[in-house]
Amino acid sequence: MTAKTPLRLPETSCRTRIREGREEIWDAIRGKWLALTPEEWVRQQTIGYLIAHRGVDPLLVRQEQSLTLNGTARRADIVVYDGQARPQMVVECKAPQVKLTRETLEQAVRYNLVLRVPYILITNGLSLYCFHFDETQNSLTPLSEIPEFG
């Protein structure tokens, strides 16, 4: 698979370039060029989808959000916030060739021990699973679609 594998998300336009023999993608949120890896392709396409099709304000998206879990530094791929700076969704992205497993979901759920978001999304660009987290019941419910934001 190439870095720009066709995904099952509505494709959004992304600027790419070759620099010093390495393909890069423009990250409009962080305002910089990044190495175009398969996982980064999924991350940028997922962000584009959330903004263009689910109403997420680009100013409320954070990538590689640092958090500390049991004294260990971790990074969530994407965290979506609301207008009051409360986290609403954590997204774990994998490369298209990486199968989404229970371990992938558990990784996002561990991040949610810190973030306490109502929505968890895992994707490899080919499969996409969204869950609602009910904090009072400490339960996850699969959703048929990603909620609208904004």
How would a crystallographer describe the biggest sheet? Answer: 6 strands, mixed
CATH class designation: Alpha Beta
- The helix content, as a percent range, equals 10-25%
CATH architectural grouping: Alpha-Beta Complex
How many β-strand runs? 9
Overall pLDDT confidence: 93
Number of helices: 2
Which fold name is given in CATH as the topology? tt1808, chain A
Key words describing this protein structure:
2 helices; alpha+beta; 3-stranded antiparallel β-sheet; tt1808, chain A; 150 residues
If you had to describe this structure to a student in words, what would you say it looks like?
About 20% of the residues lie in helices and about 40% in strands. The protein is of the alpha+beta class. It has a single domain (about 15-145), classed as Alpha-Beta Complex (tt1808, chain A). The strands form 2 sheets. A 6-stranded mixed β-sheet has the order 4-5-6-7-8-9, sandwiched between helices. Strands 1-2-3 form a 3-stranded antiparallel β-sheet, covered by helices on one side. Strand 8 (about 130-135) and strand 9 form a beta hairpin. The longest helix is centred in the N-terminal third of the chain and has 17 residues, at about 40-55. The protein starts with 15 loop residues before the first strand and ends in a 7-residue tail after the last strand.
